[in-house]
């Protein structure tokens, strides 16, 4: 029961590496349909089943990488953070 290496919420399965390149995400397909959860004068929150497929283009790299949109986060000051999980691993992105 006592795990000598307990995993915390900050532990990551794969290493994150900082990089400074332009990233373009193109949403694949048409509409996203889901069940409304709440609404206000300024917006709506809804839940959808499945995944939202995207193609990711990274400056300086040939071709688009297929993936799934997994998170959009309000970063404040008019900025949003967007997380995509690639369909396959791409070790070349983190190796120098």
Describe it.
The chain is an all-beta fold and 96 residues long. The chain has a domain at 23-27 and 46-93. 0% of the residues lie in helices and 45% in strands. It is built from no helices and 6 strands. The protein has strands at residues 23-27, 35-40, 43-47, 52-58, 65-76, 79-86. It has a 4-stranded antiparallel β-sheet with strand order 1-4-5-6, with no helix packed on it. A hairpin with a 2-residue loop joins strand 5 and strand 6 (79-86). It is globular and about 45 Å long. The model is unreliable at 5-9 (pLDDT under 50).
In DSSP terms (H or I, runs of 4 or more residues), the helix count works out at 0
- The low-pLDDT segments are 5-9
Strand content: 35-45%
Q: Could you describe the largest sheet, including whether it forms a barrel?
A: 4 strands, antiparallel
Radius of gyration: 17 Å
Say how many strands there are.
6
Shape designation: globular
The strand order across the widest sheet is: 1-4-5-6
Which structural category do the helix and sheet elements fall into? mainly beta
User: What is the typical, i.e. mean, pLDDT?
Assistant: 87
SSE succession: EEEEEE
The level of helicity is under 10%
Distance between the termini: 39 Å
